[in-house]
Write a structure and sequence with these properties.
The chain is mainly alpha-helical and 202 residues long. It is built from ten helices and two strands; from the N terminus they run ααααββαααααα. The protein has helices spanning 4-21, 30-43, 52-59, 79-86, 104-116, 121-129, 135-150, 157-166, 170-180, 188-201; strands at residues 89-90, 93-94. Strands 1-2 form a two-stranded antiparallel sheet. Strand 1 (89-90) and strand 2 form a beta hairpin. The protein is globular, with a radius of gyration of 17 Å. Pfam families: ADP_ribosyl_GH (PF03747). It comes from Alexandrium catenella (Red tide dinoflagellate). Keywords: Magnesium, Metal-binding, Signal. Residues 1-18 form the signal peptide.
Length: 202
């Protein structure tokens, strides 16, 4: 779904996934990692980081009201209160009282919440999809981040076997190509340069 807010959310997710893959400290603390990555992303001054909706989500400090569900650092995700506050329409679109997570910031918020409050790949996915709503989307977002953080060995073998049913090796091939063609150093200047190019293409 194209749009400025969706592009900003994707930029953050890509940034977080890249940081998770390139972690040097080997720390298995998702809270410390996500706190650090969100702060770093906001400090870089990238165009995507100036998206007000994304900034609010990443800060996770929403007052009671329509966006309290964006407080992913809170142990309890306030979906019910958020949906009640939004009423029958949100951003010009109809709202369903029982369906949540399709809006890019909502979906990213659920994924961050699932990852932040757990300590394994499987726990993160289960917590995330049990919010229900657009669970396939939120689970996929959470799975990208958790998979990058915990690595291949951290993914339950049952899930990998199910993936093999649907994938004939394309995913591993793409991962190898991405690894082989990656920039050798990826600091703030390189990220800003690549993000600017992506934004211009939109």
């Amino acid at each position: 779904h194209p749009g400025r807010i969706a592009a900003a959310a994707c930029a953050f997710l890509g940034f977080a996934v890249a940081r998770a893959i390139r972690r040097e400290d080997g720390s298995a603390d998702p809270k410390a990692f996500l706190d650090s990555v969100t702060e770093e992303f906001l400090q870089l001054g990238l165009p995507e980081a100036s998206c007000p909706e994304l900034m609010r989500l990443l800060r996770s400090l929403e007052p009671k009201g329509k966006e309290q569900c964006w407080n992913w650092r809170s142990p309890k995700l306030e979906v019910r209160g958020t949906l009640a506050a939004r009423g029958s329409s949100y951003n010009g679109y109809p709202c369903s009282p029982n369906y949540f997570g399709s809006y890019c910031i909502d979906g990213l918020g659920i994924a961050l919440w699932g990852f932040y409050h757990t300590t394994s790949f499987m726990e993160a996915i289960v917590r995330c999809i049990n919010v229900l709503g657009d669970a396939d989307t939120t689970g996929a977002i959470c799975g990208q981040l958790a998979g990058a953080f915990y690595g291949h060995s951290g993914i339950d073998k049952r899930l990998l076997r199910q993936l093999d049913v649907w994938d004939d090796g394309d995913i591993a091939c793409r991962a190898a190509l991405l690894y082989a063609t990656r920039p050798r150093s990826f600091g703030p200047a390189e990220h800003a340069e690549s993000a600017e190019g992506c934004t211009q293409q939109l």
